[in-house]
Amino acid sequence: MNSGPKRSGGRRSRQQLRVTKGATPNPASPGQRGGQYRPLDDREAQRIIDAAIRLLARFGMGEVPARLATLCLEKGGERRADGRITFHASLTEDVIAAAASTFILHGRDPDRSIEVGGDSVHFGTGGAAVQTLDLDTGSYRPSSLQDLYDFTRLQDQLENISWFTRCCIATDIEDHLDLDINTVYALLRGTTKPVATAFSYADHVAPIVQMLDMVEGGDGRFSLRPYLKAHISPVISPLRFGEDAVDVTFACIENQIPISCITAAQAGATAPAPLAGFLVQSLAETLASLLMVNLISPGYPMVFSNWPLVIDLRTGAFSGGGGETALLNAASAQLSNRMGLPSGVASSMTDAKAIDAQCGVEKGMTSLAAGLAGGNLVYESSGMMASLLGASFEAFLLDNEMHSANFRILRGIEVNDETLDLETIENAIIGEGHFLGEDQTIAAMERDYVYPDMANRDPPITWAEKGHADIWQTANRRVKEILADYHPQYLAPEADLQIRDRFRIFLS
Hints:
TIM Barrel; globular; eight-stranded parallel β-sheet; 17 helices; four-stranded mixed β-sheet
């Protein structure tokens, strides 16, 4: 297993820039080290990994599309009498050993690129919410393309969100190709962070790459630093491939688009209810995606996105905020990291509909567990509500602040001569009787402490004098200020005109 990646020079440059401008430096920036929480001991973790490999060797994958089946058989897979294709344990182990353990997830702004893998932790987005929590009414309504663009430019201001996957679906666009193109356009217009999207069909990949080349100023330019990642779910639980998603995988690899292969089995529905059995099947399915990608292109940049999902077994409804979700995703990160693979897990998928105590408890619990376990990319961790059916502008701000606290926990406590300075303690004992004003205190004030923007630390009387605002109201006011004032110009006018001349673009 590789050691944690070094922090990027871009992040150091941004921190130095903040110091130069007189801003408070971030004492707990993205990329902190995870892995402190290990829900499985070494024997248990290896037993689950071995069982998943045996499952692929014994039972394999069903409904393998012809193109992929031919490749699998050429590379050492075997076809059973019932048509399923199995993979010898040695083949799976060889692919794990040769797979990419780290890679750069590029931002269009190089200073916003991140290294994925090792033990570094980054929080970002995911989701395909069909509803948005309206800023004015406080009720849910169908998500629109304008919502997606507004979410994109809002999160562009939030430093603890390392990449942006489209978080909602523009339900006001019916045509699938128009939807895919306008989704990517909104991402390009609103941020220069690494971005990600999904492709409805394989033949949508080429025109979107054409649009990306227009942004970069020439054919083939995007593939030199691909900053758009594809979210693909090529496996349908239990243990069979989905043809359309497999076709998208081939198309993305042909066009040098990094991939996050997502397994999203549901405990008790499409995977076993016992947590250990669930982890075996879910891991086997994500390994099947790894086999597919690496048989097509060895060492290809792929996020090993094993997202254990849970349903409420009393009702069959998806549940994103329980303790089981926190535990399973932490275990998934541990297993992926043990194999040396870039891990993707999911958190903050609260079942709450409002910005309330349930929302805070579920988001905080699941995101911290994922971070402590060392999830390299923690998806769904920003803005998602209502069991992934909804997205909230206010939640983006609050989750960004939550990530600050999580990163501070991950950073830990530095023990050295300076922080153990007994002379400072002695001076306080025989002097003023407190540490206020001490050089050590002033130095630690910005170096060691995170100060919230949204959370209220006023005394009750001051809070009352200011109007009894709760955190939902505070975040709502701040979101409206950002969206009113922040209009980034990330597309050159010439490229924008060229794109609009070639494609149907609906944002004004």
